[in-house]
Design brief:
The chain is α+β, with helices and mostly antiparallel strands and about 600 residues long. The protein is built from 21 helices and 24 strands. Helix 1 packs antiparallel against helix 2. The protein starts with a helix and ends with a strand. This is DNA ligase.
């Protein structure tokens, strides 16, 4: 039962983190498939154990729809919740969806559905009062978003004033802000010439442009908008058709894309999905599926919503395109916690406008399943149009004379320490801790990040430079940096040096015990476990001198994590570093 409790906590934290990356920072690190799997696992566990002591009333079910707003923007409250959509890559799920709808509506036959494209941009909410645009916001957490009104004013396809005489008193028009593929290409060409970082895809470019603090920059990005729905709809006439409401919105001056169908036949919906999939590469904007909605507004209201999804709508998403390429090498990377990750490099391929050169193989199990060799011909795709993955090895194209079998290393590629296999994590890891150069550099970057003790202004690039110039070997070295040392690093001037030293001093006094434990990089000790450890020991020294018996009392710590912690704190070099950090930092305990 301890494991179940820890699993629920960990899933909640993971989902909040990935919501933040996707909705707030527009920088997802997992595919939609993986996210949906995590969310489904959480919902199933919470439903199963909601009446048990594992889920007290003080811990409600996860109902967050999107992400948190960025602090640089003011809050904007939606008049009605801005829900997300249930999604699937299985077109056959439309049959199950239709059956559920019929069941909720007392087996009504011939339900009419409205289907349109699922645009891959940034969802926005436009609030108009007496015909004038009063505010514009991002989805945010579904209830509160970021106020982006000034930047929305720069998009020519969004009217500041509703056209016509017969206008609604209050209305929320919802739609997608996006960037055309052609404009995205020109933007990246410009960034390349100026030596700036390139955008990974049109969605991130659109989201980044819409969140500019300077509206003049947003205006130069040539963003577009299509309306796909509404929230508050305060209009004197009751329009019971979603399709007719969109037609009315179009009459009021909002762009609505012309490719849609209204039908009561599932075969028509499947045909529309297949046609959209075939068209997507020829469109000048990105779509990642279609959206199917019950057309009757009365039925929508009756169906309502569950968790963060409306019951009356579903997104049918496309699979990523597969592209053939050839493996050139396999490297083994050492992570922050010592985990060894095999990475496959291949001849560069362009998938949906993004050049892909490598893909993670995750662990030994994946390598063995694929039976991958250097010089193999493989098919590569982007899971959820984001994460590069190898789908298949094309055995029929394997040249026996050319290929080379890959063997997982027995010793760390960075420090040559003998690797340990964790049966719990199904991974090999290096137990050397701070003594391992590759592992240590990643620990140092994490230690100074927002997730660690949060030394603002230092940044990953400057930390790597400090490591290169031998000024930074352990976390302790952060606190002996001075303006003279920083002045020796290219790219760090006097002004930034003063700022960094000031922020190091501030960070020393703002370290919570759970973040300190998490920043050490112990295998299996993520944010949730670190909080449990912090709540149990309430002191860094007590944790450092713990034993297996005490650790076994903590929720979520089984034999494998227990062993991982003990291996870490028995390392003399690790103990030395941690004791020095305890003296340097003002580590506070905050119950979480």
């Amino acid at each position: 039962m301890k494991f179940i409790h820890a699993k629920i906590k960990e899933l909640r934290l993971q989902l909040r983190y990935h919501n933040y990356l996707y909705y707030t920072l527009d920088s997802p690190v997992i595919s939609d498939d993986v996210y949906d799997s995590l969310y489904e696992n959480l919902i199933n566990l919470e439903k199963k154990y909601r009446n048990s002591s594992l889920l007290p009333l003080s811990q409600p079910l996860l109902k967050q729809i999107g992400g948190c707003k960025l602090q640089v923007f003011s809050e904007s409250f939606h008049k009605t919740p801005m829900l997300s959509l249930q999604s699937t890559h299985d077109i056959n799920r439309i049959v199950c969806f239709n059956k559920k709808i019929k069941k909720y509506l007392n087996n009504i036959d011939d339900i009419l559905y409205y289907c349109d494209f699922k645009f891959d941009g940034l969802a926005v909410n436009l609030y108009y009062k007496n015909g004038f645009l009063k505010s514009a916001s991002t989805r945010g957490d579904g209830r509160v978003g970021e106020n982006i009104t000034r930047n929305i004013h720069t998009i020519s396809s969004i009217p500041r004033q509703i056209l016509g005489k017969d206008i609604p008193r209050k209305i929320e028009v919802r739609g997608e802000v996006f960037m055309k593929k052609s404009d995205f290409f020109l933007l990246n060409q410009s960034c390349k010439q100026l030596g700036r970082k390139l955008f990974s895809n049109p969605r991130n470019a659109a989201a980044g442009s819409l969140r500019q603090l300077n509206p003049e920059i947003t205006q130069k990005r040539n963003l577009m908008f299509f309306a796909y729905g509404y929230g508050l709809f305060s209009y004197k006439k009751y329009i019971n058709s979603h399709f007719n409401r969109l037609l009315q919105i179009k009459k009021w001056g909002f762009p609505v894309y012309t490719d849609y169908i209204v039908s009561n036949k599932l075969t028509d919906i499947i045909d529309f999905y297949n046609q959209a999939n075939n068209k997507r590469s020829r469109l000048d904007f990105e779509i990642d599926g279609i959206v199917v909605k019950v057309n009757s507004v009365f039925s929508q209201e009756k169906l309502g919503y569950v968790e963060k999804y409306p019951r009356w709508a579903i997104a049918l998403k496309f699979f990523s395109h597969d592209v053939e390429t050839r493996i050139t090498k396999i490297s083994f990377q050492v992570g922050r916690t010592g985990v060894i990750t095999p990475v496959a490099y291949f001849n560069p391929v362009n998938i949906s406008g993004v050049v892909i050169r490598k893909a993670s193989l995750y662990n030994l199990k994946t390598m063995e399943r694929l039976n991958i060799h250097i010089h193999d011909v493989v098919t590569v795709y982007r899971a959820g149009d984001v994460i590069p993955k190898i789908r298949d090895i094309l055995i029929n194209k394997r040249d026996i004379k050319l290929v080379k079998k890959i063997f997982f290393p027995k010793h760390c590629v960075s420090c040559h320490t003998k690797l340990i296999f964790s049966s719990h994590f199904h991974e090999f890891y290096c137990p050397a801790g701070f003594s391992c150069p590759d592992q240590n550099s990643r620990r140092l970057i994490y230690f100074a990040s927002k997730s660690g003790i949060n030394i603002q202004g230092l940044g990953k690039k400057n930390i790597i430079k400090l490591i290169k110039y031998a000024y930074l070997r352990t976390p302790v070295d952060f606190f002996i940096l001075n303006i003279k040392i920083l002045g020796n690093i290219p790219g760090i001037g006097e002004k930034l040096s003063i700022k960094i030293i000031k922020n190091i001093e501030l960070a020393k006094n703002c370290v919570t015990l759970d973040k300190f434990i998490c920043s050490l990089g112990i295998l299996g000790v993520g944010k949730a476990i670190a909080k449990s450890i912090s709540n149990y020991y309430q002191s860094a020294k007590k944790f450092l001198y713990t034993n297996k018996y005490e650790l076994s009392k903590i929720n979520g710590i089984g034999s494998n994590i227990n062993q991982s912690i003990m291996t870490f704190i028995k390392n003399k070099n690790n103990i030395k570093i941690i004791l020095r950090l305890i003296k340097l930092l003002n580590i506070s305990f905050v119950y979480k």
